[in-house]
Amino acid sequence: MNYRHAFHAGNFADLQKHAILLALLEALKAQTPTLSVIDTHAGAGGYDLGGEMARRSGEAEAGIFRLIESGDAPAVFAPLIARFRAMNGGQDGPLYPGSPLLIAGGLRRDDRYTACELRDDDFDLLRRSLAPYAFAQASKADGFETAAARAGRGGRAFVLIDPPFERPDDYGRIVGVTRDVLARDPDAVLAIWTPLKDLETFDAFIRALETVTDDALVAEVRLRPLLDPMKMNGSAMVMVGAPASIEPAVAAATEWIVQRLGQKGGSARIWRTKAA
Ligand SMILES: C[S@@+](CC[C@H](N)C(=O)[O-])C[C@H]1O[C@@H](n2cnc3c(N)ncnc32)[C@H](O)[C@@H]1O
C-alpha cells in the first residue's frame, strides 16, 4: 500500500466528500436515535497542510485554501470551514481534518464510530487523533470486512467507503460490502467516494451497484471532460439510502467545486439511479 492521503488532504475531492459527509451526518442524526458509523478507509485522522507531502502536491492550495479565499462559498461548506478553523485555533490553516475527526466531532455520546486503517504509520496517527473520543474506536483491520461484520449490530449503520483504488478489486469489493451491509441493516446509509478518470469504469461500477440497490444518489464533479483516462479528471460521491433532504446540499457543493475549481468543459451531474 503506497497511498498516503497526506498528499491529497484538502483537495477538491476532499471538499466534496467532507462537505457531503457533514451534511449527511446532520440529516441522519435528525432521523436516528443511535448511529453506528463505520469508516472503512480512515487514513490518519487529520493532516498538516504545511508538511512536506501536502506542500509537494499543492492540492490543498487548489482546494481548501481557494474555498476559504473565494468569499462566495455556499452554506453547505460552512460546517467544514468551521471545523477547519476550529482545528487551527480560529485561523485558516495549516491543519485539516480528515474524515475521522469530522465524524468523531459530529457524533453524540451514544453513537458509535469504528475507523479502519491498515497502514502502520497512518494507524498510529489515527489512534492518537481519536483518543479523546470514548465512543470511537481505531481498528487496524480491513475496512470492507469490518463494515460487513459490524452493520446490524446496534444503531443504524452509516458507512463511509473511501479506498485508494490501488487495487483492481476495489470496485468489486465496494459492491460486495454494499450488498452485505444492506442485508444486515436494510436501513443503512452508505457514502462511497470514487475517482472519475474515464466513463466506462464509472458506468461499469454504477451498473454493478444497481444489482444490489435501486436507490443511489450520484454526484459527479467533472473538473474537465473525461478525455484522458490516465488523469484524475474529477471525483464522485455515490450515496445509497441517502434522505431526499440532502439533495440541495449535495448539488450546491458539487456545482460550486466545478464552477470555481474546474476547467473549461467541466460539469456537475447530480442524479438518482431511480426516481426518488
Ligand atoms: C483515501 S484515504 C482515506 C481518507 C479519509 N477517508 C479521509 O477522508 O480523511 C484511504 C486510506 O485507506 C487505507 N486502506 C487501504 N486499504 C484499506 C483496507 N482494505 N482497509 C482499511 N484501510 C485501508 C490507506 O492506507 C489509506 O490511508
Description:
The chain is of the alpha/beta class and about 280 residues long. It has a single domain (about 25-45, about 100-270), classed as Vaccinia Virus protein VP39 (Rossmann fold, 3-Layer(aba) Sandwich), CATH 3.40.50. Helices cover about 40% and strands about 20% of the residues. The protein contains 10 helices and 10 strands. The strands form 2 sheets. It has an 8-stranded mixed sheet, with helices on both faces. Strand 6 (about 155-160), helix 8 (about 170-185) and strand 7 (about 190-195) form a beta-alpha-beta unit. Helix 7 packs parallel to helix 8. The protein is globular, with a radius of gyration of 17 Å. The termini are far apart.
How would you describe this structure in keywords?
single chain; 276 residues; Rossmann fold; alpha/beta; globular
Question: What's the layout of helices and strands?
Answer:
Layout: H1 12-31, E1 35-39, E2 46-48, H2 52-57, H3 64-70, H4 78-87, E3 95-97, H5 99-106, E4 112-116, H6 120-130, E5 136-139, H7 143-150, E6 156-161, H8 170-184, E7 189-196, H9 199-209, E8 216-222, E9 234-240, H10 247-261, E10 267-272
Parallel strand pairs: 1-4, 1-6, 4-5, 6-7
Antiparallel strand pairs: 2-3, 7-9, 8-9, 8-10
Helix pairs in contact: 1-5, 1-10, 7-8
This protein binds S-adenosylmethionine.
The site of S-adenosylmethionine (SAM) has 20 residues, from helix 7.
